[in-house]
Design the sequence.
């Protein structure tokens, strides 16, 4: 089973398609974020799907009123995205507006140091929200495996945990999988490496239990 997600945070279409093509054998999905959509246009989602035949996650971290979240999500799902990442702190109505249109992944905690200020104190409530709405998954920080185990214990078993923060931000893939994560998100350590395919292969092996 493939459990690696490529965070393709580059601007340029040619680079994005090349890195996705070179690494696709080791990926479960490709995640696109604002840098790539702003740099290459929304059409990049369809192009990446055609290039890789993999699911595409649009990491827009939607955090608006229900009407605006819905207007954005409609465009992004129509462009071919299979999943959209949305913030939960804006409330269940905002998240539901996206869930009415397609599969959602809810942010419950973030991987950077500043996440301790405002998001981490809300994690329990955000996990409760996820248990109530039953999205495809939630995002939790690979930089804090102890928080991933904490969230896994509180979260309904069939909701997936996706964890960014491996590699460039210091988290370890094996550590966070052992803590209960289902998928590992890696960006810079793959796309900015000298050999993205080899880097993805090594993460894949680590995930499968080998040594990196
Ligand atoms: P790097 O280059 O650090 O990229 O491997 C990580 C990717 O994941 C996104 N990211 C997050 N997304 N919650 C999220 O929903 C988080 O805590 C988080 N931390 C990183 C980041 O934008 C990049 O695409």
Sequence:
């Amino acid at each position: 089973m493939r459990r690696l997600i490529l965070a393709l945070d580059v601007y340029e279409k040619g680079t994005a398609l090349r890195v996705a093509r070179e690494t696709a054998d080791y990926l479960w999905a490709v995640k696109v974020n604002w840098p790539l959509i702003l740099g290459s246009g929304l059409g990049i989602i369809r192009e990446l799907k055609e290039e890789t035949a993999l699911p595409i996650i649009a990491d827009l971290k939607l955090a608006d009123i229900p009407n605006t979240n819905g207007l954005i999500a409609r465009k992004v799902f129509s462009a071919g995205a299979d999943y959209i990442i949305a913030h939960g702190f804006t409330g269940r109505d905002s998240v539901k507006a996206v869930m009415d249109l397609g599969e959602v992944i809810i942010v419950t905690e973030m991987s950077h140091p500043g996440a301790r200020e405002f998001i981490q104190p809300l994690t329990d409530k955000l996990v409760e929200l996820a248990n109530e709405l039953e999205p495809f998954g939630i995002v939790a920080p690979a930089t804090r495996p102890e928080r991933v185990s904490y969230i896994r214990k509180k979260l309904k078993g069939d909701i997936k945990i996706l964890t960014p923060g491996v590699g460039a931000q210091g988290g370890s893939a094996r550590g966070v999988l052992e803590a209960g994560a289902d998928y590992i998100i890696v960006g810079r350590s793959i796309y900015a490496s000298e050999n993205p395919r080899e880097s993805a292969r090594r993460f894949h092996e680590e995930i499968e239990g080998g040594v990196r």
User: Anything to note?
Assistant: The chain has one domain: 4-211. DSSP finds eleven helices and eight strands in the chain. The mean pLDDT is 95.
